[in-house]
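ARCHIVE CARD
CATEGORY: sequence design from structure
SOURCE FIELD: tokenized fold
FIELD CONTENT:
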């Protein structure tokens, strides 16, 4: 029986294309860092290398620890002092990146409805950002971290998508069996990897992230409106 629903964030709950987001994100980051006397290009390169390291994390340390190890290796040990500046960026200037949104939506009604039906909810967003950055993006669609039982962040994860261990870690954390869970996302590689654990899945196609044109026919898929119709039909398990 389905008891828990996992949602990807970028391109799934939040309506934008990933390439647009990345360009706007790094542009805003450089604007924030340059007045501090920092080389924006070097900062961007170091962040990108740290991000790739998190994606390949073997679980030896948290994604946060791994990111800052790589970041400091690229820029020198003094770069560790920049964490507070990045935190400030995510709390303030990062909000300007909302300009990449392709539509204004409020996901509150959907999430509240699922909660009322008794379902556990996980925000299974790729854990390469701190919680502050995720909270900012959630606010763009009328949500908060408190709407979910678990939010995967770079602070609390040791793996990343598409590593199946990322999904196994979620199952362990929430104490659920895979057949009781549904993963919803917009990437046939990163998000549909959840199927390897035994979860079911739904691929949202509005802002699909599929640069290598992987086949999507093997997966239940459709627009976000199609997804809402599917979720409207699931039973109330709150009683």
């Amino acid at each position: 029986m389905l008891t828990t629903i996992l949602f990807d964030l970028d391109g799934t709950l939040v309506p934008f294309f990933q390439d647009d987001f990345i360009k706007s994100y790094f542009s805003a980051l450089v604007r924030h860092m340059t007045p501090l006397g920092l080389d924006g290009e070097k900062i961007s390169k170091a962040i990108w290398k740290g991000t790739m390291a998190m994606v390949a994390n073997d679980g030896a340390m948290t994604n946060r620890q791994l990111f800052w190890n790589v970041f400091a290796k690229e820029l020198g040990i003094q770069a560790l002092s920049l964490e507070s500046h990045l935190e400030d960026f995510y709390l303030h200037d990062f909000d300007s990146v909302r300009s990449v949104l392709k539509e204004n939506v409020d996901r509150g009604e959907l999430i509240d409805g699922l909660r009322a039906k008794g379902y556990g909810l996980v925000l299974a967003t790729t854990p390469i950002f701190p919680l502050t950055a995720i909270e900012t993006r959630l606010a763009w669609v009328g949500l908060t971290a408190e709407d979910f039982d678990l939010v995967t962040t770079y602070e609390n994860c040791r793996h990343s998508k598409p590593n199946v261990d990322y999904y196994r870690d979620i199952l362990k954390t929430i104490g659920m069996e895979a057949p009781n869970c549904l993963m919803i996302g917009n990437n046939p590689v990163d998000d549909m990897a959840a199927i390897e654990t035994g979860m079911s899945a739904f691929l949202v196609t509005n802002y699909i992230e599929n640069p290598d044109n992987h086949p999507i026919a093997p997966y239940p898929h459709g627009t976000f409106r199609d997804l809402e119709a599917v979720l409207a039909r699931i039973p109330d398990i709150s009683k």
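CARD ANNOTATION: The first strand starts at residue 4 and ends at 7. The chain has two domains: 4-16+105-233, 19-99.
SHELF: design records, drawer C
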